[in-house]
Amino acid sequence: MLDKYLALSEAQAILNTGASASFIDTLAAGDAISPGARIRVRIATAYVDAGGGTIIAKLETDTDSGFATVLKTLISGPTITIAAGAATAAGAVGVVLLDAVIPSGAYRYLRVYYTFSAAMDSGAMDAHIVLDVAKTMDLIK
Predict the structure, then answer these.
(1) Given phi > 0 = left and psi -120 to 50 = alpha, else beta, which region is 74?
(2) Structurally, how many domains does the chain consist of?
């Protein structure tokens, strides 16, 4: 189950380099993220481009919501290559660009930043912070 308040991109049609549609305010400086929380970024709508290109997703943090003060990359995913022409397996729905535990060192604000080597013709992303239920919920007795 996904928490809407932890969504950074929801079927966001991002076709060129840029930030997630939303950012998360952890309401505190420092490591205010729940232990075991993960960042998960996946393709929501297949990416297609006549010329092909690459996509990288990274989790960024800053002390201000404009992400212009002390911008820091917490973690980057691998480079995903989109072949020229029709949709390929690398750009297919469900392909994961980033799935990792959020490392320590986060500032107050979090966002995902997508880097494209070339503008895409179509495609969309989902990005959510997913809490590790086993570490964040008490057992019901």
Answers:
(1) alpha
(2) 1
